[in-house]
Amino acid sequence: MSQSTSDTNIDVASVVEDVNLRRIGHYTIVILFLGFFLLPLITGIMTALKTSTAVANTLPFMPPLGDGFTLANLEYAFNRLSYAFVNSLLMAIPATIINVLLASMAAFGLTMVRWRGQMGILVLFLIGIFVPYQAVLVPLARFWNNIFPIADMLEPVFSVVPLIQGYHSALVPLIITHVAYGIPICMLLFRSYYQSLPNSLVEAAKIDGASITKIYRRIILPISKPMFGVVFIYQFTQIYNEFLFSFTLVTSANSSEAPITLIIPTIGTSTSGIDFGIRMAAAFLAALPTIILYVAFAEQFAKGLETESA
Amino acid sequence: MGRIQFDHLTKQFGETVAVEDLTFDIEDSEFLVLVGPSGCGKSTTLRMLAGLETPTSGDLYIADEHMNYRVPQNRDIAMVFQDYALYPHMTIRENIRFGLEEEPGYTEAERDERVEDVAETLGIDDLLDRKPGELSGGQQQRVALGRAIVRDPEVFLMDEPLANLDAKLRTQMRTELQRLQEELDVTTVYVTHNQTEAMTMGDRIAVLNDGRLQQVGEPLELYHAPENQFVAGFIGEPMMNFLHGDRSEEGFVGEYIEYPFDERLERAVGDAADLVLGIRPEAIDVRHAGESASQSLGPHEFRMTVTVTETHGDQNVVTLTHAEDEASHDTIRAVTDGMHIVNAGESVIVTVEPDAVHVFDGETGEALCNRRLETARELTI
Predict the structure, then answer these.
(1) How many CB atoms lie within 10 A of CB A130?
(2) Per-residue b/e over B205-227, b at no fewer than 16 CB within 10 Å?
(3) Is the pLDDT of residue A309 over 80?
(4) In chain A, what residues touch B75 (CB-CB under 8 Å)?
(5) How confident is the model at residue A308 (pLDDT cuts 50, 70, 90)?
């Protein structure tokens, strides 16, 4: 906000008056919004580091002092969540990668190649975006449990493979579901990006003798890197934080294959009530992967969004 | 044999007809320029040649093979785009090499060698390891050319390749493109809206307007013997002067000018009532009026006033209006020698010899009579 004295304003007194009021107004709004967004976060971090007594006796957003400070909450949360971390990542990373790859291929086929009936297929994708999670929960559970129990089928295979356990096969239906659900929206994101690319690139490649697959592999895929970053971050966050499908397909927080989203609601409960310190610690630990991802890809993210709006 | 044949080729986009009933041939190794105003269908024709559009009706043959439905990958053609369409993430070397990968009969080493050779021919061998984003417009254009040349195709297609270059570079590249085409001896179809490029570069020119072929022939043929008013007005800079009027007993009568016909013109024009007189600027002789304002004028001489003079150095382009035309509606332009100076506001005598006059039918635009050329230099038309 640069309030330089403008030559066109003759009435000096009113200019000075305006500057003051406006500035105060702007700053007030900014501070209010800052408080609105940051206060819960600050409170959370502070609570995670306090003992239960400190939580009860001090103001929520005040930092823990002296006796009130403890790392025990974080320790407990970490131990309890370590397996769940593995589960969540084992589920989210393959799902996101497959999701992004398939969506970009679909977007390429629908946007940069012309063929009969592609409008109809595009409409189907668009409809897919709008199907609500809740509507398909029961059929989904029935499908994966009774009609096509892939989890049971793959269990023996998984127990033999090193590093992962047999029970992780229960994550496969979850991965497939997330891929199916995520492709429409990711396809749309890629489509808008591909629409901004010049058609002459694909035309030149065609004249150079490249098949459609080669054009995708050698030309479009390398160029889409910024967009891959954007869609990856977006989709990973969606899948990692997702509760409903996990709950429907994995059902219990006590199962060994439970993702982190199932564990968090149950952590810290005891007969004496809810231990907020542990809860907050668990929440922050759970958010760590997405924060790290965002920081790592922030540049790509910004570039990708920039290209989209260009 | 990179011969191209268009046989009643038509392309429709929904209701709009982009190209209508195009029929002519392009010889092997010929440099043919497709020229016309924006929206005339020249780019669409080029894209049909490339395989990027499918004709609605009619036939297209390249090297005597029917090409209507063949995909661009299988046509053995190369194209230079207006925006160059270089692959931004690849180095120049990879850009040029890309098309060669699908060509059979090369080993990997031979491919690399060929890329080096082509780069050297175009003077870009020191740029091979850079990316397109780091190059200037002229350099990018050479890379686009290199990409086309390296594949040794039957036909080169060029879609206004010089449009994005500055004026000096454009003239430079014009000569270089011509030299290259002579050297490589490949049939080239070149699309442009710039008539100077068409005149200077083409072995033959095809003029299109509104999707229809107006005339195809050698540059001088189109210049001296245009088949209709559109071609006459399109080819030649400054543009041919057109005077609208009617047939009279003696010849032509316009708003301010009466132009008697000689025998040749009379015979050619016949009964046509609505006429347009076409006179090339360089065919108009301009001389100072002199002291006596009441000097008697010959049948083909007119008194005019100079309104604007443009000095080009080698020539002057003079805009003239008839002495009685106060509002300066009907202006004609004449070209005089650079040393022959006339000033604005001056009164001049303008002479137009009947031999230099073109007459067009006012309704159809068809040419009724073109200028007579000296027998020694007359083109066999």
Answers:
(1) 8
(2) bbbbbebbbbbbbebebbbbbbb
(3) no
(4) 207
(5) very low
Q: How far apart are CA B305 and CA B328, in angstroms?
A: 10
Task: Find, in chain B, the residue whose alpha carbon is nearest to that of A223.
Answer: B89
Picking from B229, B257, B281, the residue at the C-terminal end of a domain is: B229
Rounded mean pLDDT, A169-178: 90
Q: Out of B208, B229, B250, pick the residue that ends a domain.
A: B229
CATH number, residue B99: 3.40.50.300
Alpha-carbon distance B74 to nearest alpha carbon in chain A (angstroms) = 7
B168-195 tens-digit pLDDT: 989 888 998 888 888 889 999 999 988 8
CB contact under 8 A, A209 and B101: yes
Task: Kindly indicate the confidence band of residue B1, based on its pLDDT and cuts at 50, 70 and 90.
Answer: low
Look at residues B197, B278, B266 and name the one whose alpha carbon lies nearest to residue B241: B278
Q: What is the pTM of this model?
A: 0.80
The number of distinct structural domains making up chain B is 2
| Chain A residues lying within 8 Å of B189, measured CB to CB | none
CATH number, domain with residue B322: 2.40.50.140
Cβ distance A209 to B103 less than 8 Å, yes or no, reads yes
| Contact between residue B305 and residue B264 where contact means Cβ atoms under 8 Å apart | no
**pLDDT at residue A2 is higher than 60:** no
User: Do B254 and B186 lie in a common domain?
Assistant: no
* Chain B interface disruption, residue of A113, A207, A215, most B CBs within 10 A: A207
Cα of A220 to nearest chain B Cα, Å: 9
Q: Quick: pLDDT tens for A69-85.
A: 778 888 888 888 888 88
B59 domain residue, yes or no? yes
Q: Is residue B235 part of a domain?
A: no
Residues B122 and B256 placed together within one structural domain of the fold: no
Mean pLDDT of B100-122: 89
Nearest to B102 among A201, A203, A209 (CB): A209
Phi-psi category of residue B261: left, alpha or beta, with phi > 0 → left and psi -120 to 50 → alpha: beta
The domain in which residue B308 lies consists of 242-377
Tell whether the model's pLDDT for residue A298 goes beyond 50: yes
Provide mean pLDDT across the span A179-201: 93
Same domain, B31 and B179: yes
Residues B248, B225 within the same domain: no
Q: Is residue B237 part of a domain?
A: no
Question: Under the phi-then-psi rule, with left for phi > 0, alpha for psi from -120 to 50, and beta for the rest, what region is B42?
Answer: alpha
Q: Do B73 and A211 touch (CB under 8 A)?
A: yes
Give the nearest partner residue to A222 out of B74, B85, B89, using CB atoms.
B89
pLDDT averaged over chain B?
88
B55 and B155 inside one domain = yes
In this structure, are B197 and B61 located in the same domain?
A: yes
What is the ipTM for the molecules in this complex?
Answer: 0.83
Residue A219 DSSP code: I
Question: Are B180 and B250 in the same domain?
Answer: no
Q: Are residues B136 and B220 in the same domain?
A: yes
| A10-43 pLDDT, tens digit each | 667 665 556 678 888 999 999 999 989 888 888 8
Q: What is the pairing mode between strands B315-322 and B187-192? A: unpaired
Contact indicator for B266, B276 with CB cutoff of 8 Å: no
Q: Is residue B252 part of a domain?
A: yes
Mutation target for A interface from B87, B111, B152, B189: give the one with most A CBs within 10 A.
Answer: B87
Bridge-based pairing of strands B77-80 and B65-66 is: unpaired
